[in-house]
Specification:
Rossmann fold; five-stranded parallel sheet; single chain; four-stranded antiparallel sheet; globular; 152 residues
Length: 152
């Protein structure tokens, strides 16, 4: 079962999304402590992150940039910000998709399914073992000891 993490500060929207995703067959969890969301996301290891932009402590843009630098994929920005420059900025930081709220829930589920399908095709490749290092061809990440490096 794919795990989706909702990073949304509006409790009503967060609960609505969690319920929708659970009913649609996903394991849906949320982050409600926004002081260190990147650490929480790395620990939870989701298949997809639904990420708002307007959050306390740090913006969704900053979180997106940090998560992508760690090699995680599948970030769908779900935000009320409907300006083209915001969408382009998010996509430039590595977001995989961008939807504005309110959005049609069928459209949201279709985008989620599409993103998960794209990455699941490549998951069978796994890590390449080089002896004292490993390479993840999906995220262009090299692992040496307990340190990861994103390849250019």
């Amino acid at each position: 079962m794919e795990r989706i993490i909702v990073v949304e500060d509006d409790i009503y929207m967060r609960e609505e999304l969690i319920n929708l995703l659970n009913k649609s067959g996903y394991e849906a969890l949320s982050i409600s402590n926004f002081e260190n969301p990147v650490f929480q996301l790395l620990e939870l290891a989701p298949n997809l992150i639904l990420l708002d932009i307007n959050l306390p402590y740090q913006s969704g843009f900053e979180i997106c940039k940090s998560i992508k630098a760690k090699g995680m994929s599948n970030i769908l920005m779900l935000t009320a910000r409907d300006k083209l420059q915001d969408e382009l900025h998010a996509l430039g930081l590595g977001a995989d998709d961008y939807l504005t709220k309110p959005c049609n829930m069928e459209r949201l589920l279709a985008r989620i399914k599409n993103l998960l399908r794209r990455t699941s095709k490549h998951e069978h490749q796994g890590l390449l073992d080089g002896g004292n290092f490993r390479i993840d061809p999906n995220t262009f990440t090299i692992y040496i000891d307990k340190t990861s490096y994103i390849l250019p």
